[in-house]
Write a structure and sequence with these properties.
The chain contains 4 helices and no strands. The longest helix is centred in the C-terminal third of the chain and has 32 residues, at 67-98. Helix 1 runs antiparallel to helix 2 and helix 2 runs antiparallel to helix 3 (67-98). It is 75% helix and 0% strand. It has one domain (5-113): Helix Hairpins (Orthogonal Bundle), CATH 1.10.287.3510.
């Protein structure tokens, strides 16, 4: 299995963000790690499709790159941004209600509330 530099960077980003997601208890850091994982997946899929000597598919070109993967990744980027923004808005509501950015403290405050 031959990996190019883009795929290696994407895998490293994915592993670092996954480690941050598992270790950190801060909600904002967890949301940012999820956003980094999303971008690492997009980068990986674009790296799979990357080939040398390919040109953008404009007009009738013989050696054109496949635009389908790029279009799907643009959609994935938009969905990732929407998920991140909704997560941050949910965090703001949680912070206003419980006054903490720690997962464990918020869960404890919620269990005391009921």
């Amino acid at each position: 299995m031959n990996l190019n530099a883009v795929e290696i960077v994407a895998l490293l980003l994915f592993m670092i963000a996954l480690l941050g997601l598992l270790i950190k208890r801060n909600i904002i850091k967890s949301i940012l790690c999820l956003a980094i994982i999303d971008l690492a997946v997009v980068l990986f899929f674009l790296g799979i499709n990357a080939e040398r000597n390919r040109v953008p598919p404009i007009g009738t070109v013989q050696n054109a790159a496949d635009p389908v993967a790029q279009a799907i990744m643009i959609t994935a980027i938009v969905i990732g941004i929407a998920v991140t923004s909704v997560s941050l808005m949910m965090f703001i509501a949680l912070y206003h209600r419980y006054g903490t950015a720690d997962w464990k403290k918020a869960l404890d405050a919620r269990s005391r509330e009921t």
